[in-house]
């Protein structure tokens, strides 16, 4: 096989070699990126600019920008105000890693 058609597991192999702490940091960064991407797409779906979403959420445009840049230390209150302005709410589930069962769930909304 040529170099371009050979299935590549190099990234997976690289990640597999991480120490536990590095793997956890990678997972946290990946999750933050997934959330930032979701927030961006939800705002786009509502047809809002960052400024428009910020006005609705009563936060500065820079706060919306930070939320959409995968900041791993975002404030839950700011995130909920933003999602509330877009017509969404947060639901958090705590899931047992071994069994996959939901141990607890909560929902956040300003309503």
Short note summarizing the structure:
By secondary structure, this protein is mainly α. The protein has helices at residues 10-16, 20-45, 50-57, 61-67, 76-86, and strands at residues 90-95, 102-108.
Rg: 18 Å
What fraction strand?
A: 5-15%
Helix content: 40-55%
CATH superfamily: lambda repressor-like DNA-binding domains
User: Can you tell me the number of structural domains?
Assistant: 1
Query: Which architecture name does CATH use?
Result: Orthogonal Bundle
The SS-based structural class is: mainly alpha
Instruction: Provide the low-confidence segments as ranges.
Output: none
Number of helices: 5
CATH class reads Mainly Alpha
| Cross-sheet strand order for the largest sheet | 1-2
Order of helices and strands: HHHHHEE
